[in-house]
Structure formats: structure tokens, C-alpha cells
Amino acid sequence: MIWNALPTLLRGAGISLALVVSSVAAGMLLGVPIGVAHVHAPRSVRAALWVFDRIFRGFPAIVLLFLAFFGIGGLPGVRIAPFAAVVIALGLRSAAYQGQIYRGALQMVERGQVDAARALGFSFPSALWHVALPQAVRFSLPALSNEYSVVLKDTALAFTVGVVDLMSRAKFLAMRSHETLGAYLLVAGIYFVLTHLGIALFRYGERTIAVPGLGRPQARRTE
Predict the structure, then answer these.
(1) Considering the domain boundaries, does residue 56 fall inside one?
(2) pTM of structure
(3) Over residues 99-107, mean pLDDT
(4) How many domains are contained in the chain?
């Protein structure tokens, strides 16, 4: 029965992957400007970002999920779909971590390159966009592969707010078949494959855009 349920589990894995891609993309859209602000913004902005970081890096992922779905979604006139609640919670959490990743990557870019671009007539935002950020993205890829694997594991909590993802289908399969160990071992294998396939894609991207002579950051996401 367990192997017969594999197509159903794979459909759930597709939902989990969609959650990962959406959450990491949301984290990137917010994390890049956060990283820039950490390096170049006034002290008052950096202080506000310090509070943001402490909140979203300090709360457990499941607490953020419950705050988004049951807390904000429970306010009068507010309705948040389970999928959207997960993306909001994990996306903001990822943004806090990615902001630190991009901060470190931007600090690896020599300030003289930005100064040289400005001497050639670039505005400061244009120098960041055309000179510093492309290098920072390249430097950040090793840490982003780790971020992908962490967010993928965090999505295993999505079933707690009603998302019919891989874990939700695994729970139903275990209850129906009474083969709990086999069901969850199969799901563990699927997560293992998804994790290492994603990491392999990031490493392929690193090799593809690598520039000889430029260093690689060694930082990884830490709790």
C-alpha cells in the first residue's frame, strides 16, 4: 500500500517545493535591500533592522506560522489562505537570514570598486546595482544553498495550518495503512532527495558563474 501511495506523496512533494521556492524568493526580494541597508543605511535604519532580525530569527518557525495563520488570519475581516500564511511566515524568516547573507557578501566586495564606479559617473545606487550586487550574489550562493535546505525542512510544519503538502499526505497514509514506520521512512527519503538535488543545483550555479581569483564566502546560516 505504501508504494502504491507514492504518486500521492509526490504530488505533496510538489506542494512542498512550491512553498520552498515561494518562501526563498520572498526572502530574496526582501533580503537584498535588507542586506544593502545593513551596510549602507543610516544608523536609525540599521537599528530597526536589528529588531526585525531578532524577531524573525529568534522565534521558532511554528510560532511564526501560527501567528500568521491563526493570529493575523483570525482578526476580524482578515482571511489568509494556509499556503499564503506559510509563505508569509517562512518568507519573512528567510528574509532575516538572507539579509545577513547579503550583508556579508557585500562586505566582501572591495569598497574601492564602488568608489571607482562613482568616479566614472555612476550614481551610488547605480554603482551598487551594476558593480557590487552582481558580485555579492555570486559570493552568496554557497550560503543560499544552505538556506534552501533549511527552508525545505521548515515547510514540513506547513501541515499544522492545513496545507496538504508532503507531510500532510504522509500523516494520512500512516493513519490509513497503519504502517507508520514505512510511511515516514519513505517521506524521509523524499526529503533527502529534494534537499540534495537543490544543493546540487546551487553548486552547479556556483561553478557556472565562478570567476577565477574571486574568493568564496564560508559563512552559513546559524540559528
Answers:
(1) yes
(2) 0.87
(3) 91
(4) 1
